[in-house]
Specification:
This protein has 443 residues and is α/β, with parallel strands linked by helices. It has three domains: 70-137; 146-294, Histidine kinase-like ATPase, C-terminal domain (Heat Shock Protein 90, 2-Layer Sandwich); 316-440, Rossmann fold, CATH 3.40.50. Helices cover 53% and strands 15% of the residues. The protein has 14 helices and twelve strands. The protein has a five-stranded mixed β-sheet with strand order 2-4-5-7-6. Helix 12 links the parallel strand 11 (390-395) and strand 12. The longest helix is centred in the N-terminal third of the chain and has 85 residues, at 15-99.
């Protein structure tokens, strides 16, 4: 018997058998060749897929880098835009503040002052919201949190929009408890509720009604801002907190807007560990926005510090501002309060004056020719024997890093244009400046 697996001996005398075996081997070779072609094709496809994957990875990385670069350029552009727009707003705001200080202003003049004041505030709010949207998208917004009474903040927020409500004969009802303590940034939370109130007023007709209510619920403060205005349909509700989303245009265009206010609201609330939602029963049925913020677990007693009284003494002030109109209007404002003002229009001249004479207060723009404000205060502090005044930086840039850089350079305060005239005058006359001057005097 033949061994298992052995190749049978060929019968050379049998051509038919030989032809059959050759045909079988030829078929097997053809099958192997076909399988090899399939494997080669699969290998080619695999190599092509790997190449495409590498290219896709590189493209994704390129697109990500391009997107990050575009966002960075956008934020830089928005910061520059705010600076350029705030520069002309500053002298307009200051000049308007001086109108009220004219002797016996007429009714017409007071009306014109009110119009200018409202429009400056409107432009300032638009700039602030636009910049905050950019800062939030790039993760550059920060909070200065502390335990604070929420109800007091709500009442102040209502006061900021009171003029707007009176113009449209809108009523506002408050349902507020005695005390709710939250851990929050008072400036940012005031922005949240002011934005919600402005939004409610914008989409509510004349003689409309706006309600603000607050209560404690399960360890949280729940604040609702509701109105009986235009309302929202389901499509708008789904994206109401998205950037550049607007409500019904018939009302929105009456006052303008960029569609960023509610986006800023949502992001600030979420940074506080809270939530905000919007609801409406449909067009014409009004809207309700609900903000939920965590309450301070152990609030204890809230200490209210007495306000420092203004000191009426005259200050020797060095004003360094390259914008001629802003320099003149701010100088006149300070002179009108009894202060002695010396003006300079560039950083080099400002530094020379600060080194040569003793001033109580330095009010210095950051963007100056020759030497910028950072360089001026840095070089002044390095000057041996120089008298160092209380330094106030003023700038159109309002980002956190700008403020931090100014304080680190040696400024005591950082104010963003357009300046609040009353706040600036109160700062110049404050007891903090008086204490600084007293400490700087030679003993």
């Amino acid at each position: 018997m033949p061994t298992v697996g052995a190749v049978p001996a060929l019968d050379c005398a049998d051509p038919a058998t030989l032809r059959a075996m050759l045909a079988q081997q030829a078929g097997e070779v053809a099958s192997l060749r076909a399988a090899g072609l399939v494997q080669a094709a699969l290998g080619d496809e695999l190599r092509e897929a790997n190449g495409n994957l590498v290219l896709a990875t590189l493209d994704a990385r390129t697109l990500r880098d391009a997107a990050e670069g575009a966002q960075r350029r956008q934020n830089e552009f928005l910061a520059m835009l705010a600076h350029e727009l705030r520069n002309p707003l500053a002298p307009i705001s200051l000049a308007n503040a001086m109108l009220l200080r004219l002797p016996e202003p007429s009714t017409e003049l007071l009306n014109l002052h009110a119009i200018i004041h409202r429009q400056v505030l409107h432009l300032t709010r638009l700039l602030d919201d636009l910049l905050d949207a950019a800062r939030i998208s790039s993760g550059k917004i920060s909070l200065l949190r502390s335990p604070m009474p929420l109800v007091d903040l709500l009442r102040r927020s209502v006061q900021t929009v009171q003029v707007r409500l009176q113009e449209r004969h809108q009523q506002i009802q408050l349902d507020l408890p005695e005390e709710l303590i939250v851990d929050g940034d008072p400036v940012r939370l005031a922005q949240v509720f002011s934005n919600l109130l402005v939004n409610a007023s914008k989409y509510t007709g004349d003689h409309g009604l706006i309600r603000v209510a607050a209560r404690a619920h399960e360890g949280c403060a729940v604040v609702t801002v509701s109105d009986n205005g235009a309302g929202m349909d389901a499509l708008v509700l789904a994206s109401v907190f998205d950037l550049f989303t607007q409500g019904p245009r018939a009302l929105a265009r009456a006052e303008g807007g960029l569609g960023v206010g509610l986006n800023v609201v949502r992001n600030i609330v979420e940074l506080h560990g809270g939530t905000v939602t919007g609801s409406s029963d449909g067009l014409g049925s009004g809207s309700v926005f609900t903000v939920v913020l965590p309450l301070v677990a152990d609030d204890g007693a809230v200490t209210v510090l007495p306000r420092a009284s203004a000191v009426p003494s005259s200050r020797r002030i060095l004003l360094v501002e390259d914008n001629l109109d802003a320099n003149e209007t701010l100088g006149r404002l300070l002179l009108g309060e009894g202060h002695l003002v010396t003006s300079a229009y560039d950083g080099v001249a400002g530094l020379a004056l600060a080194r040569a004479r003793a001033f109580d207060v330095l009010i210095c723009d950051i963007g100056l020719p020759g030497l910028d404000g950072y360089q001026l205060i840095t070089q002044l502090r390095k000057t041996a024997g120089a008298h160092i005044p209380f330094a106030i930086a003023i700038s159109g840039y309002g980002q956190v890093e700008d403020r931090t850089r100014a304080i680190a350079a040696g400024f005591g305060q950082y104010l963003v244009k357009p300046l609040d005239a009353d706040a600036l005058l109160a700062l110049v006359a404050s007891s903090a400046v008086t204490r600084f001057i007293a400490a700087a005097r030679p003993h």
